[in-house]
């Protein structure tokens, strides 16, 4: 944006009561230099504003070029459509005419603005620049992007300009799209696109009259494939990419047979998810969109469900601060050492991932300090740490793999905003998952209706739990989720449950009454092994599922 125009807007914003109309109650948020905080674009400037009464923050977009009548109508239609969209991937928007008075050479007394909810975080451009070398972080990013892509793929509208600069990564890692100028909505059917994407994310043969719900398809699969490839091999980003373009250029799309980056991707064909994304990328390259595909094409497994195990190669690395305790050479992973005889341990600053079983069997460990650099804590962490009194989950932790705390009975304290710890039960941020049930003395428990998933080993060893209520919201019960709940006598599994993991109720020796719904899709091996059911119930279960679930 022209500096003179930007300065005029800044001066106007500093006195909202005089220069704003309907939004005069908003106040500008100031930057460190005392000037209104703003983000400068080529065609606009966006100011951060706050409603003093509610405390809510907004983005106020001021235009470099005043929209004509057709553009104004487009903004109003998009704003009306977004009101109906209930998704974290989009924010609501208002187009307000005759709103701001600024000392600039336009005939209008007051100029139009766009008002949107403010999105905290950083653009994907900034996020990639800082994190592309961290494979687990990139795997989480790819998974979240693919979830968003699958959701957007089945909508009857399209964003129209999905690029790294229009994808915000919030502090909790979730994604939100911004920049809605090029959106397609059903009421625009038959009209022309307002603009084409940059060449790095636009199909090379797309024309301006191609404007429908599929205009995002190519950019979605191109970005998804790029993120997956970078998560598997960050060196590809060093060799071919940049935060603005990711891996591909227009030349790669036009002549894939001559593309060095596409040729380099062949080394990643060992990964099943990569192969699926690659196949659909080539389909989109040929057809121009993914109208022949389904939302399943973006299916990626949640990396949180994967073990943060010690790769065989990295087990040989011994860049350590203490004998027998292993760190990765870059200092970002802590591998630990089984059965270490140590009373107090401080993990090195700079560690981002504590790998699975890092403290497994540290029988003498009494205290541990986890630095604020840690983002991921692996599964099976504190098994057999019999004298460890307390573990504090730092504020920096975003991911817990499985249930790191099963088999350990000490005191847990959670400082991370990414989890909720109440009544000795650890949940994820939105309470949709039970991670760890910590009260070993409780004899009855009602699972909250917000819960959809019960993680593996979540209730492991809750020996006094005799009564349990599972609500209709629960969809999956993880591996060994209730293993060893030997006082549990009666169990009703609601019809919402579609999957029960291996050994889920292994060793629930007091179970004498059980109801399992007909709609169950998957039930794991030995799910009810060591459960002493009456003969009639055993016969019924065997008839439905075979002896394998009873052992």
From TrEMBL:
It comes from the Bacteria. Gene3D superfamilies: Ribonuclease Inhibitor, Transferase(Phosphotransferase) domain 1. InterPro entries: Kinase-like_dom_sf, LRR_5, LRR_dom_sf, Surface_bspA-like. PANTHER family: IG-LIKE DOMAIN-CONTAINING PROTEIN (PTHR45661:SF3), SURFACE ANTIGEN (PTHR45661). This is Leucine-rich repeat protein.
């Amino acid at each position: 944006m022209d500096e003179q125009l930007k300065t005029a807007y800044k001066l106007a914003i500093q006195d909202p009561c005089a220069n704003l109309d309907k939004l005069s109650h908003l106040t500008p948020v100031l930057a460190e230099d005392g000037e209104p905080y703003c983000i400068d674009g080529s065609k606009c400037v966006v100011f951060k504003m706050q409603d003093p009464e509610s405390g809510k923050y907004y983005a106020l977009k001021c235009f470099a070029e005043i929209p004509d009548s057709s553009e104004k109508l487009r903004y109003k239609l998009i704003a009306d459509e977004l009101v109906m969209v209930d998704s974290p991937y989009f924010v609501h928007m208002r187009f307000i005419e005759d709103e701001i008075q600024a000392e600039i050479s336009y005939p209008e007394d007051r100029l139009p603005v766009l008002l949107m909810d403010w999105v905290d975080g950083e653009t994907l451009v900034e996020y990639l620049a800082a994190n592309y070398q961290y494979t687990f972080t990139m795997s989480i990013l790819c998974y979240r992007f693919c979830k968003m892509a699958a959701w957007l793929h089945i909508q009857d509208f399209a964003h129209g300009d999905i690029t790294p600069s229009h994808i915000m990564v919030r502090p909790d890692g979730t994604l939100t799209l911004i920049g809605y100028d090029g959106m397609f909505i059903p009421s625009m059917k038959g009209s022309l696109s307002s603009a084409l994407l940059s060449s790095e994310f636009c199909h090379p043969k797309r024309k301006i009259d191609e404007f429908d719900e599929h205009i995002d398809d190519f950019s979605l699969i191109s970005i998804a494939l790029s993120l997956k490839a970078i998560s598997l091999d960050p060196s590809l980003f060093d060799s071919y990419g940049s935060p603005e373009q990711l891996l591909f250029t227009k030349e790669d799309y036009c002549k894939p047979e001559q593309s060095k980056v596409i040729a380099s991707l062949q080394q990643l064909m060992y990964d099943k998810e990569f192969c699926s994304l690659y196949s659909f990328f080539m389909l989109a390259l040929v057809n121009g969109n993914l109208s022949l595909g389904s939302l399943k094409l973006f299916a990626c497994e949640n990396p949180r469900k994967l073990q943060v195990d010690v790769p065989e190669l990295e087990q040989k690395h011994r860049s350590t601060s203490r004998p027998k305790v292993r760190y990765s050479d870059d200092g970002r992973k802590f591998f630990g050492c089984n059965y270490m005889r140590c009373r107090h341990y401080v993990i090195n600053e700079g560690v981002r991932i504590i790998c699975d079983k890092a403290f497994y069997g540290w029988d003498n460990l009494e205290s541990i300090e986890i630095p604020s650099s840690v983002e991921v804590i692996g599964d099976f962490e504190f098994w057999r740490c019999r004298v460890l009194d307390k573990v504090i989950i730092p504020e920096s932790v975003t991911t817990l793999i499985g249930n790191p705390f099963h088999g350990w009975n000490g005191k847990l304290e959670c400082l991370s905003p990414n989890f909720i710890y109440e009544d000795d039960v650890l949940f994820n941020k939105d309470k949709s998952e039970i991670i760890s049930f910590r009260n070993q003395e409780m004899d009855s428990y009602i699972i909250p209706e917000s819960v959809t998933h019960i993680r593996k080993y979540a209730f492991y060893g809750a020996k006094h739990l005799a009564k349990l209520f599972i609500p209709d919201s629960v969809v999956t019960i993880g591996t060994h989720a209730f293993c060893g709940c030997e006082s549990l006598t009666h169990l009703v599994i609601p019809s919402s449950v579609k999957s029960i993991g291996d050994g889920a109720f292994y060793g629930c020796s007091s179970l004498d009454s059980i109801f399992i719904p007909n709609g169950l899709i998957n039930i794991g091996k030995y799910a009810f092994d060591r459960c002493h059911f009456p003969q009639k119930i055993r016969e019924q279960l065997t008839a439905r599922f075979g002896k394998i679930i009873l052992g």
